[in-house]
Amino acid sequence: MVAITLRCSTTVHLLSILVVMMMVRPSNGGSNDGDDLHSVPLTVVKGAVAEGAVCLDGSPPVYQWAAGRGGGVRNWIIFLQGGGWCLNTTMQLPGRAPVESCAARATIFLASSRHMAPANFTHALSPLSNTSYFYNWNRVFVRYCDGGSFAGNADKQDPVTHVYYRGARIFDAVVRDLMARGLKDARNVLFAGVCGRSGAMVHCDRFCGHFPKNVVRVKCLADSSFFLRVKDPSRAKFLDRVFRTVVDVQRPHRALPAGCTSKMSAAACFFPQNLLRYIKSPIFIINPVFDAYQIKTTFSVDLNNQVTNHTVSRSNMTLLQGFRRELINALPPAKAGNGSSDEIEILMYLYLY
Question: Where are the transmembrane segments (predicted)?
């Protein structure tokens, strides 16, 4: 594991290490401190449908919440579930990973709360004190069903697939519901998006803005979300097309920073390397050096297989080293907004599988 620290206070550094430990180490079992691992029910967000905050198929959004206890009763960890984007068509370049059609997805759990079953709370969400630092916190798992990283806000149904793109409305409805359940009284909050999605980046500042500064400690975390637009236009072509199409379909414009969209296209602002430059709140980035989907779509499936099997040739190793440098250089420089506590704190862990 390689740690790239751009700006990090002692508190942020210690918390980030804890988070990384929770993400990568398996559960070791042990005594149960309260909850049953399989007993966290789905909570339907009341009133969401009336506000237009719906899953792809029009069903209401849901989340799972295990209430905090003891010393963790006013601490919260909130995860946005990942699950990949979908489009109003199926895109595929020869030999590379396709992007699923939202119409094809609409009958499964990633598009409809009607097809969801409760997920087990493990790793960072585990109730076991010997497995997770957050075992007695309020632990929330926001289920993913919008196909666009909780960012979409299209007013009308898609005329091709007849589904809804309302991820931003889902996010707002869930936060309002959690506020009423005690989140407004929180002391410490970790807001995270895991497994390749950028929702935590998109909503980081907006989420942190719900809490008074210097009173509540709020941090964001984006795990496996840093898909890079490389400088080589030919290699950037596929992801460029995916991002443009997602933005055209999902209409995430209002969820993106106005400072970014005033200077470049919404599709460009959706790329993490641009989006991150406009995030003012403390955020952790945890990312593989050579993400499988990134390598497949930017280079080739064959090169990804070489990485997986540790059979990379000398010439391809040079290619990958160049990509690694470009990934690190794409991170924004540390800077202070007003010379005080508004200073951006970024810590990025690059890890190899």
Answer: none
